[in-house]
Known about the structure:
The chain is mainly alpha-helical. The chain has two domains: 3-54, no CATH class; 81-306, MetI-like fold (Orthogonal Bundle), CATH 1.10.3720.10. It has 14 helices and two strands; from the N terminus they run ααββαααααααααααα. It has helices spanning 3-22, 25-54, 73-77, 81-114, 119-129, 136-146, 152-159, 163-170, 184-208, 212-220, 225-254, 257-261, 269-279, 283-306, and strands at 58-59, 66-67. The radius of gyration is 26 Å and the shape is globular.
Amino acid sequence: MSAASVAIAAPTLSRRFAGFLYGRRGFYLALLLLPPLLWFGTIYLGSLLVLLTQSFYAIDEFTATIVREPTLRTYAQLFRPANLDIVLRTLGMAIAVTLASAAIAFPIANYMARHASGRVRAFFYVAVMMPMWMSYLVKVYAWRLILAKAGIASWMFETVGLSNVLDAALSVPGIGGPSLSSSYMGMFIVFVYMWLPYMILPLAAALERVPVSLVQASADLGARPSQTFRNVILPLALPGLAAGSIFTFSLTLGDYIIPSVVGAPGYFIGMMVYQSQGVAGNIPLAAAFSVVPIVLIALYLMLARRLGAFNAL
């Protein structure tokens, strides 16, 4: 075949292939989705399946080797008092961080979406996202210095004459400690700071979609601002609130760096996964602990769906 005939046949074949795809939209869509789905199925779901499989194995107590026989002994270890305390401690912190983030984020997101305009709104979006551009470890260690016994936080309380209030808060059993950097209260502050942008941005996006006409109609019908918020704005903002709470809840459940650097002594789920896999070499127990956040997130999504958080999507 001559070069001229090849040059003529090449666009003809490409046009035929393009015409074949144009007439079969479903095949064209499947062809586009196939590479990312293969990647997702192989790398993510495949590794998750391997993780779940490891959780059904156990460690031989004498040889410290993994016995690759299906068993529930590793899951039974999760119900020991020490491990159950770790799960409840992590769950309590995740719930507290989620509630505090929602309470702080809602007025900020409401102002960004419904009142700020132009440059002010752009400034708020940049200000919210700017902490996310900084190194995670830098922020954690910076907060450790801020919350230290001789840090900026203690100096500010002493300057305004509220050092007694700080000492009283640190003396509360369960949340206090020698200093903010060595207490669950300080850990809670760092968690809220870290995950607050993940709550603000979905909430702002949801509040931007609330029609102004509905708010005006509520006011015209004589509803007070609190009634308008409770009956109009909040139900329509629930999808954004649910999305933000999923971020804050799941990220707190799985984090192991913040509890390792800031806070009182005591393991969290993420720390147990790291210790079991990296230090003790107990991969089945690490896998079993990794399943706990998956189950808790699944239960949370079921509860959110039952409460109608996704009806406005």
